[in-house]
Design goal:
One of its GO terms (molecular function) is RNA methyltransferase activity. There is one protein chain. This protein folds into three domains: 5-302, Vaccinia Virus protein VP39 (Rossmann fold, 3-Layer(aba) Sandwich); 315-351 and 358-388, no CATH class; 394-458, Archaeosine Trna-guanine Transglycosylase, Chain: A, domain 4. It has 15 helices and 23 strands. It has helices at 5-14, 17-26, 44-50, 77-80, 93-98, 115-124, 139-149, 162-168, 192-197, 200-220, 240-249, 320-333, 383-388, 407-411, 450-457, and strands at residues 33-37, 55-57, 64-67, 84-86, 105-108, 129-133, 155-158, 173-179, 221-231, 253-256, 264-266, 283-285, 295-302, 342-345, 348-351, 364-367, 369-375, 378-381, 397-400, 416-417, 423-429, 432-440, 443-446. The strands form four sheets. Strands 5, 6, 7, 8, 9, 10, 11, 12, 13 and 16 form a ten-stranded mixed β-sheet that branches. β6, α7 (139-149) and β7 (155-158) form a beta-alpha-beta unit. The longest helix is centred in the middle third of the chain and has 21 residues, at 200-220. The structure holds S-adenosylmethionine. S-adenosylmethionine binds at residues 91, 110-116, 134-136, 139, 162, 179, 181, 209, 213.
Amino acid sequence: MKLPESFKEKMAGLLSRKEYTSFISSLDEKPLKGLRFNPLKMTSGEWEERAPFPLKPVPFCPTGYYVDEEEKPGKHPYHLAGLYYIQEPSAMAPVEVLDPKPGEQILDLSAAPGGKSTQIAGKMKGKGLLVANEIHPKRVKVLVENIERMGITNAIVTSESPENLSQTFTGWFDRILVDAPCSGEGMFRKDPEAREFWSIQHVEKCSITQRKILDHAYAMLKTNGVLVYSTCTFSPEENEQTIEQLLHRYPGLKLESIEKGPGMEDGRPEWSIHQHQSLTYTARIWPQSGIGEGHFIAKLRKTEETTPSSLPVKQARVKKGDLAMFEPFARTCLNMDLSGSLYQVKQQLFMLPEGYPDLKQVNILRGGLHLGTFKKNRFEPAHALAMALREDQVQHTLNLKSDSDHWKPYIRGETMQTDTDHGWTLVTIDGYPLGWGKDVKGVLKNFYPKRLRLLSLK
Ligand SMILES: C[S@@+](CC[C@H](N)C(=O)[O-])C[C@H]1O[C@@H](n2cnc3c(N)ncnc32)[C@H](O)[C@@H]1O
């Protein structure tokens, strides 16, 4: 592999000769591919029964699997149904270290495209509140799509700088993940652009950004809260040195030891300025380990007393006339009660997650589960709602089978023939939702979102 000369020189200076040889030769091997099944939609037993290609478990992530190089998991309809998320295996490790629990308030500060947010949500089981934030306005759209595809109901998607977000959420979160923007050396096997873009100056620039992000993350953490910092790069400036400086700035933060399974190594105190031995508590994954492309992870706990912002819980609210449009839909289409937590923003209807705070100064792209849109005299359900339902929660389904090609016309946006007149119908693949159709007198009008039709057929 063609690598920047100054990168090679730097790594040769850091690693022993044996380590360097095995590191450099591993970069000539094929990158590892992986996916995580979605525990919000199925159990691991169901997944193992249904998995459409051969899989090998990722040792450090119970929902993670290695996928053979020749498989194309992005083309299977189970991907469209949100049954799994395609993710490089070592990127599955930080959320296992974060260890989110149902009912907690959790922030993913740099969340797009959503690999780690969707993993966090899987562990929260729909309980508590996940704030998935992405500063970049374009990238946040993909984040919303992935949150919706995976059927997540308890997330707010925001697009703010860490600085702005910390004005609202002082001392508020039980757990925060900072999966920082970095120089991406762990992407070298996967992404030629990462190799071309690399420079010593970029490493330095990233390390400055990371330090600023961490200052704001610290401010947003509760007393006793857990902060996990991760990067997909090898440079000490962005890893051990960033953590070392963070510990100097905040004596109230304590490093906690990460349990290392096979292939995970300790962080390197000798690569930091003050060589704190506790930096061995951090974890490194190297490509030569054979378990993933490369990551650095640190786990910290805040011991300093912090007064949390007092944020009032948002009150559910829908205009009476609009509610009268939603109710017939709910009565004739759903087998579940959604009333009580409904909230309206102009023509859009949402289901608020439990304990959803009233946020005035935050740019919110998705405040909970998008249920649908009030049109002229009718309610049209959202794709996000379809993706968050189970087939037993609706009255009418049209089930397509993944072992025939019948699902393809649906995701191309074509109408389909039925011999019924059921109205709103959940279209499923082997029983798992793909989207909505409206069945009127034997013809199912297609409501698979236009923006996804193109993506799905690529
Ligand atoms: C490594 S990626 C996140 C990947 C994501 N956690 C996942 O698992 O899918 C880092 C993210 O940080 C965002 N970012 C860039 N500059 C930032 C800043 N100053 N503050 C916060 N986030 C930033 C990038 O737009 C990018 O989406």
